[in-house]
Fold this sequence. Notes:
By secondary structure, the protein is mostly helical. The chain is built from 15 helices and 3 strands. Helix 6 packs antiparallel against helix 9 and helix 7 runs antiparallel to helix 8.
Amino acid sequence: MSGQQHTDSPVFTGTRLPAIDAMRGIVMVLMAMDHASHVFNAGRYARDSFTWYPAGSEIPAAQFLTRWVTHLCAPTFLFLAGFVLALSVARRQARGDPERSTDADIIKRGIFILLLDPLWMSFGFGEGIVLQVLYAIGASLCCMVLLRRLGIRSLLVTGLGILFFGEVLKGLAMWAGDGQRPGLLGTLLITGGAVSKDIYVLYPMIPWLAYMILGWACGKRMLGKDAFNPVRLFTMVGALSLIAFFIIRGFNKYGNMLLYRYDNSILQWLHVSKYPPSLTFSALELGLMFLILAFLFAWYRSRHASAANPLQVFGRAPLFFYVIHVHLLAAAAWVLNLYRAFGLLETYIATVVALMVLYPLCRWYGRFKQARPKSLLRYL
């Protein structure tokens, strides 16, 4: 997305951050692989919650790692949404746009994105109404209307506090319910889970809001008078996050959201709780994200970002990519009668084919949207 231009910084190209577009492009590719696996892969392994994992059971390495690499997607989506929102708001403030207009636009965008999950995406997954990452992004955007008034330090404390005390929040939500299950608000906001027979919350808002808060704080810091060196800072934060992961996972107590390490194998070290996100999950995925961002910012310091580069193309139309790729994969599986009929190799091939189809569509959409900056397409 657009960002305020810093003419003295080589990481900015025009009004875009090519490193951010590339990062989003990477996670779009990973997400397409995950959803291709969801549709085509007969042996798909997704036991990333203690409620879904039989304690100590064997983990199939190839299937697990295919799923595990895609864990990077959701935290990165939320973090970059907050980061880009900070740049977008700063650009509007520089133009003299009224704060009320900015708030209204953020709320409209948030509601629009939130409603995509129950009204569009759930039909692609075909498993009832499932509130997933778009619900978390949309709800978090609405919250940022108020939270963006806080200072950077307050936001960092809030975001990190949510991540660190995630297990405490979950316990409080269970206590506020019947002791075994949370109430409706607890399910929507903190724990996730079944709301009814046909409605399931996979991404409760508050745990995932933390990533957007941290992204906003980082974006605001980049726009400060003492603008930081993103390569140095992201490398340092990424390294510290990974150190925190090894310490918390090593102690194997608090911070694992009850999905503990049952031996010292690499798979058990990496098998962390995503639903809801544990502290180990957050430390690991944010650490990897920051290190990749550091590399991309360094890479684009002296290199031109080609508009035809697939990562740039996908990264400049992430929401459009998201809302069509699941339906594309589901339609292909239905027409060809191949639902859960493949192994991993065929799943990887299906991912490549899907990306080849999505590439010209995303290029076309990017030009189409650019020609209509005032239309409702600005939300997609």
